[in-house]
């Protein structure tokens, strides 16, 4: 090792010669971006520097502030599903449009398309990437409590209503297939699997999501 260091110390690119000072050290950057009228007519691929969401429209699911109190009263009368911290994080993803064009937790047809094709076919025939199922698991007791209701309220671990799921569909949770098709193996020790899938309920519930207010973590980053 010492001989290697001696060789490297004699190479030209490690010379101890002083650096030449630049006569113009400032490097101006421009933050402006312009688009042709043609691209604007097409709807534009960008909005404020961001790539347009899949499906062409950002699907935001947070209820407008004037209606939040009314929606919370509605939630109090509905069958209740309690969310895990992981469920709440996926709800956050859906609420702010990061999973556009999804309008809620996946129903069975969306779930199966994601598992088998890593994509979703939209109503207009177009196809968008969707390689990870965004689903909500419930157990037998919760399923029985829901009964014939077509709407449920979602609650956080502190007992606060956070969302309403409407026009719901409940279907079997194929855990082994989900693991195999998502990770390409069912070997033990896979990340996320035990907490979010293996120990989750035997049923999945999908539907249209209304989030009652923006998700906050009180971690100092909520304002961004």
UniProtKB/TrEMBL annotation:
Top-level taxon of origin: Eukaryota
Q: An example of a Gene Ontology BP annotation on this entry?
A: sulfate assimilation
Which Gene Ontology MF annotations are present?
A: adenylylsulfate kinase activity; ATP binding
Query: Which Gene3D superfamilies does the UniProt entry name for this protein?
Result: Sulfate adenylyltransferase (3.10.400.10)
ATP-sulfurylase PUA-like domain location is 51-213
InterPro entries membership: ATP-Sase_PUA-like_dom, PUA-like_sf
Alphabetical list of PANTHER family matching this protein: ATP SULFURYLASE 1, CHLOROPLASTIC (PTHR11055:SF46), BIFUNCTIONAL 3'-PHOSPHOADENOSINE 5'-PHOSPHOSULFATE SYNTHASE (PTHR11055)
What is the official name of this protein in its record?
A: ATP sulfurylase 1, chloroplastic
Q: Which organism is it from?
A: Noccaea caerulescens (Alpine penny-cress)
For this protein's source organism, the top of the classification is: Eukaryota, Viridiplantae, Streptophyta, Embryophyta, Tracheophyta
């Amino acid at each position: 090792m010492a001989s290697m260091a001696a060789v490297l110390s004699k190479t030209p690119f490690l010379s101890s010669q002083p650096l030449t000072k630049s006569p113009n050290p400032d490097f101006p950057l421009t933050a402006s971006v312009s688009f042709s009228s043609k691209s604007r007519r097409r709807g534009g691929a960008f909005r404020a520097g961001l790539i347009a969401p899949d499906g062409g429209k950002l699907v935001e699911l947070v209820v407008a502030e004037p209606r939040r109190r009314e929606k919370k009263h509605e939630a109090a009368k509905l069958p209740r599903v309690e969310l895990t911290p992981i469920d709440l994080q996926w709800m956050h993803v859906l609420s702010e449009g990061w999973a556009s064009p999804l309008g809620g937790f996946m129903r069975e047809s969306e779930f199966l398309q994601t598992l088998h094709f890593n994509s979703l076919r939209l109503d207009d025939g177009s196809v968008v990437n969707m390689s990870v199922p965004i689903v909500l698991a419930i157990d037998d007791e919760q399923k029985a409590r829901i009964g014939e209701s077509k709407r449920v309220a979602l609650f956080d671990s502190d007992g606060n209503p956070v969302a309403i799921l409407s026009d719901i569909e409940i279907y079997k949770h194929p855990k082994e297939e989900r693991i195999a098709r998502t990770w390409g193996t069912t070997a033990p020790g896979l990340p996320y699997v035990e907490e979010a899938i293996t120990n989750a309920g035997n049923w999945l519930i999908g539907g249209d999501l209304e989030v009652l207010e923006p998700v906050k973590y009180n971690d100092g980053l909520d304002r961004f």
